[in-house]
Every structure is written in C-alpha cells, then in structure tokens.
Design goal:
The complex is a heterodimer. Chain A is of the alpha/beta class. Chain A folds into two domains: 10-50, no CATH class; 53-209, Nitrile Hydratase, Chain A. Chain A is 42% helix and 11% strand. Chain A is built from eleven helices and four strands, in the order H-H-H-H-H-E-E-H-H-H-H-E-E-H-H. Chain A has a two-stranded parallel sheet. A two-stranded parallel sheet of chain A has the order 2-3. The longest helix of chain A is centred in the first third of the chain and has 15 residues, at 19-33. By secondary structure, chain B is an alpha+beta fold. Chain B has two domains: 28-118, Nitrile hydratase, beta subunit (Cyclin A, domain 1, Orthogonal Bundle); 137-218, SH3 type barrels, CATH 2.30.30.50. Chain B has eight helices and five strands; from the N terminus they run H-H-H-H-H-H-E-E-H-E-H-E-E. A five-stranded antiparallel beta sheet of chain B has the order 4-3-2-1-5. The radius of gyration of chain B is 20 Å and the shape is globular. Classes of the chains: A alpha/beta, B alpha+beta. At the A-B interface, helix 1, helix 2, helix 7, helix 8 and helix 9 of A face helix 1, helix 2, helix 4, helix 5 and helix 6 of B. Strand 3 (158-163) of chain A pairs parallel with strand 4 (205-212) of chain B, so a sheet runs across the interface.
C-alpha cells in the first residue's frame, strides 16, 4: 500500500532527523569538533539524571525524618546538611529548605519564572512543573491546581505556596500516613511520591501499595 | 524584564496535565540538549543568571511556543554565538570551520560526578548587616528592570512579612548583566493571597518568594 516514491526504507526506522534533531546534532558535532565538550562526559551527565538521581533520594530523606525525630529536627533546621548526611548534595540543591506539612498547613512549591527544582533529591522536573499552566496558576489558585491532581484539602487548611525565585530549593515533607507505626524506613520510602514532595500530592496510604491495614 | 517567563497569575493556560509514568526525557535530542547545557557551563564560563537571561530574553511568542528543552537549546545557542564559541555558518554546516576559542577547561568524564556532587554555593560574605529581620513588614518595590530580574510582577507593590533570612547571595540582576556578583542579603517574604489577588481571594492561601534586599523597602 506504500507509495513507492516514499518507499526508500533502507535507512531503517528513526534514521531521518527532524529539523530540530538535526540542529541539535549539528550543534553537538561542532562543539565536539572544537573540543569544548567530551561526548563521554555528556553520556555520563544524561545517565546520572536518567538512572541515578531522582525522587527515590528525596523519599529516603522524608522516611528518615518520619522515624527519627532528631533527624527531622536537623532537616528542618539545616536541610542542606541533613540531606547531605544521606549522600545527596550538589547541583541545584546547594541551599535546601525543608517544608513540613501538618494538620494545619499544606506546602506547595513552584517556580513561576523558570524551572527551579531540587535536583539532588527529586531529579529533573516533570514537564508539567515547567509548563505554563502550573507556573501561572500555582500562585493564583493553588487549590485549583491541587484539584487538577485530584487533591482536595480541608477548606480551613492553610495553603502555603513557595515560589522558588532564588537559588534556595524547597523540599516538602508530606505527612506520614496512619497505621505505619512499625514500618521500616525503606518501607516508608515506598509511600513517598515525587508529587508529595512538591506538594501536588500526599504520601500514599498503605492500601495504595497493596498493604492491608 | 517583563517577559513571557514571568508567568505567575497569568490566566488562560488551562489545567495542569500530568503524564503518568513520565520518563525523564521524551526524546534523544532532549538528552543531548541537557548534556550540552551542563557540559558547556565550564568552558563557556557564563553564570547561571546569564544562562537564564539568554532563555527568557526572547519574543514572548517564541518563549510560549517552545518546549522547555527547546528553550534551553535556543538559550545555549544564543550564548555560544554571542560569545564567539561557534558561528552561524558552522551551525549551518554542522561542522567546525575554524579554530576553537581557547577555553579554561573542558568537562572530562571523571569530573562529572564530582562537579554535580559539589554544585556551587551562591552564598557570599558581605560587609553589611541585614536590613530586615524575621517578622519585619516589607513591600516589594514597584520596579520594571529591562534586564534580568527575579522579582516576579505579581508581588510588585505588595506588602508581606519576612519569614527567613537566607544569608547574602549572588545578585542575579547584576550577575546576568556581566556586572559582577554584587551579593545582597536574601529573604523569604510571605504575602497573603488577599494582599496579592484582592478581597475575593482564598483567605487560607499565602505565597512566598525569595527576595534580595534591593527588591524590598520597609512597609509602613
């Protein structure tokens, strides 16, 4: 059924570059030929954020804060140092502040001006976090944004929105779900979602991961 | 600048749509743009604020019609062209056509992990003492700089309360213009939703920003 004029498939799937892909490849080739970049370093950078640094890091921080009151105090007092205790530090997390959700207060983090996000604990931000709908509305109508995520908070709960306008990076510590008293830190970390550490979600209930209460 | 990047409070963009099980990157080219942006920081020698300004200092239509990694690509390309690291004919040809500019250092594979783990602190010592303290009432100045700024429009002219003193940090407005780090005291300032958005706003909402000292004046 193929039109023969378009039937040259000898290059195989994916070999034809879009204009955008061609521009990226051209730029990388020029930079490599000039010796400004080492493609092996690029591969490592990409692999680091694809496979090594992500929200599992932040989940460990939150879970430890839930079970260890002294650690929780250190985290709220000096988040950068407390997070570094678990081995997470560096780029886009140099000046961390932890925000603890309580019965009275729910915290929500945004960057209205660009895409500031705590990389060492959450990895790279999802597309929605960088998108116009989230950046525009999180500060104007945070409860409406939470509703987009299926989250409805008590009407009298304070909603604190944190716009990341400097190099300070914010990590939300969600509330610990009930009926997890005897859980280990590793097990608790499984309840801590990325969105719960941004504030667009809550920590999962045990039933959500198939644990009977 | 009052550009398209300053989105707080703008209406009409529709609901937030999250992608289930979203991958870190959606295409190979995104990975390469990300890698190039990080790897060029060292040989390029530009500050993070110069990088941000290169991304946002475009026509609003361009900013709003690009995906985020397209914005990064455009910003990186702008910096490389403006500073003579590459030229337009080389980008067209897809090859280097003339000798490279000399650079201080190139990011080597063995330096990737140490560089990422170290990061770079933006806190600096200053000789001044902080003008404001926690609990002070302050007003965001009504100012409209044509260069880079991190004071969003939606707080300008509004009064809030200092909730944290972060220390003195590199001042983006100066640093992005190539005029030095000029560190200033940095504060977290909390505004009520009603102060920002009027009496009809949700009384349970507060919004805070991090604001450098020169963004603020005492509120009487």
């Amino acid at each position: 059924m193929h039109d023969d004029q378009h039937g040259d498939h000898s290059h195989g799937h994916g070999s034809e570059l879009s204009p955008l892909e061609a521009r990226v490849r051209a730029l990388e080739t020029v930079l490599t030929e000039k010796g400004y970049i080492d493609p092996k370093a690029l591969d490592l950078l990409i692999d680091t954020y694809e496979t090594k640094i992500g929200p599992r890091n932040g989940a460990q921080v939150v879970a430890k804060a839930w079970i260890d009151p002294a650690y929780r105090s250190r985290l709220l007092e000096n988040a950068s140092a407390a997070i570094a205790e678990l081995g997470f530090s560096g780029r886009q997390g140099e000046h961390m502040v932890a925000l603890e959700n309580t019965d009275a207060v729910h915290n929500l983090v945004v960057c209205t001006l660009c895409s500031c996000y705590p990389w060492p604990v959450l990895g790279l931000p999802p597309v929605w976090y960088k998108s116009a709908p989230y950046r525009s509305r999180a500060v104007l109508d945070p409860r409406g944004v939470l509703a987009d995520f299926g989250l409805s908070l008590p009407a009298d709960k304070e909603v604190r929105v944190w716009d990341s306008t400097a190099e300070v990076r914010y990590l939300v510590v969600p509330q610990r779900p009930a009926r997890t008293d005897d859980w280990t830190s590793d097990r608790l970390a499984g309840l801590v979602t990325r969105d719960s550490m941004i504030g667009t979600g809550l920590a999962l209930e045990p039933a959500a991961i198939g644990v009977a209460s | 600048m009052n550009g398209a990047q300053d989105m707080g409070g703008v209406m009409g963009f529709g609901p937030v749509v999250a992608e289930p099980n979203e991958p870190v990157f959606h295409a190979e080219w995104e990975k390469h743009v990300f890698g190039m942006v990080l790897a060029m920081g060292r040989p390029g020698g530009w500050a993070i604020d110069e990088g941000r300004f290169a991304r946002e200092n475009v026509r609003p239509l361009d900013y709003l019609s690009r995906s985020y990694f397209e914005i990064w690509l455009a910003g990186l390309t702008r910096l490389l062209l403006d500073r003579g690291f590459v030229s337009q004919d080389e980008l067209q040809a897809g090859h280097s056509l003339r000798p490279a500019k000399s650079v201080a250092s190139v990011l080597q594979p063995e330096n990737v992990a140490p560089m990422l783990a170290k990061g770079s602190s933006y806190e600096r010592p200053v000789a001044t003492t902080a003008l404001f303290a926690v609990g002070d009432r302050v007003r965001a100045r009504n100012m409209h700089p044509t260069g880079h700024t991190r004071l969003p429009r939606y707080v300008r002219g509004h009064a809030g309360t200092v909730t944290q003193v972060h220390g003195a940090h590199v001042f983006p407005d100066s640093n992005a213009a190539g005029q030095g780090e000029a560190p200033q005291w940095l504060y977290n300032v909390r505004f009520t939703g009603r102060e920002l958005w009027g009496e009809a706003a949700d009384p349970t909402v507060t919004v805070s920003i991090d604001a450098w000292e020169s963004y603020l004046e005492p509120a009487i």
